[in-house]
Amino acid sequence: MSMRNKTRRGFTLIELLVVISIIALLIAILLPSLAKAKELANRAVCSANVRGIIQVMFTYAQSNNSVFPCTPGPGTAGTYANAPGVPGTYAAPSSPGAIVAAWYGAVAGGPSALTAADEGDPLACLWIMVLQNYITPKSFICPSDPIATTPSLQYSQTAATGGGTAGQANFGVMTDGSAPNTTGQGESYSINYPWQYDATATATAPANAGGWWTDNIDSDQPVISDMAPLDTANGSVSGTGRDTEQPLSNTYGPYVYNSGNHDGAGQNVGFGDDHVSWESNPYVGADQDNIFTFFSAAAAAGTSQAGPTVPGTGITAANTITNTFSPDTPPYDTIMVPVRNVQTGAW
Question: Within a 13 Å sphere around the CA of 97, how many CA atoms are in the beta-carbon half?
Fold first, then answer.
């Protein structure tokens, strides 16, 4: 009886190449879908963050005369601080309570001791909620933010003072206002400019919160959004620069006027009744205002402005608000601050 030798035939080179090609094709087909699904999930997380922040703002207001978190306003008419900073009397390590007190001038003797470092800082308004344990820094990070990818530490070890625990004085990055974000720490959102305009504002008598910055805010008034983009100088656009004054129909696509988060596809915007909506462009809320541009009331004779018609009025590094915001009504223009360069992360 004879036995046949059986041999097992392997895959040929052509068959292997065909299989590899099919796998590669499937990957190419599925990857965009997976990326889209991830972005949709990120938008949902971001939306939850924005809504959570607004709800905390209402909780804060209940214990603070109905006013949303608000440190002293600009000490010079219309000028605000566009970057993280520390109170003028801050000295590490300081307890959270001492930092809050310093922002209001209490540590150095009251309002007469206020300095420019204490005033007109939107990020300080948000950080107040962190220092008083209403919310954690993690809630201020959008998962689709390419710049701020890590929440700031609420407390940090300060080597200069023997490693003691120090309360962070703000969101912890770029206190000089210009350097790029190399740490990834920070936050991802901007808020509606909270102070009324005061032509007589001084360092010792800064502007107060506007009447709209309370828990009685109108339901269609934008309160917070994904980080506002820094406008490029004179409306010029290069690479992925932003020109928030571009019309909806433009040669650059929607990214040119949107937040730098979410790949420039749009932004989550939270409103006065704490609902959050995904917006593919910044024309939202009352009068369909562009929340990333600012216009002088005088330029439009006090009427509502639906779109950008005045050149050079996007928010730039000048950090100046010149409109006359009345103390008791919502601002003529909703403008989200601070703003951040979407390429470098510089404030």
Answer: 0
Radius of gyration (C-alpha) of the chain in whole angstroms? 25
Peptide bond into 84 cis (omega under 30): no
Give 59's contacts (C-beta < 8 A, 6+ positions apart): 134
Token digits of residue 133: 């344990």
Q: Is 216 exposed, middle or buried (0-12, 13-18, 19+ CB in 10 A)?
A: exposed
70 pLDDT tier (thresholds 50, 70, 90): very high
HSE of 161, CA atoms in CB hemisphere, 13 A: 11
**What predicted TM-score, i.e. pTM, was given to this entire model?**
0.81
Closest to 204 measured CA to CA, from 323, 76, 98: 76
Confidence of residue 233 (pLDDT cuts 50, 70, 90): low
Instruction: Indicate the domain borders of the chain.
Output: 36-340
pLDDT at 52 over 70: yes
Rounded Cα distance, 229 and 242, in Å = 7
Structural contact between residues 164 and 93, judged by C-beta atoms closer than 8 angstroms: yes
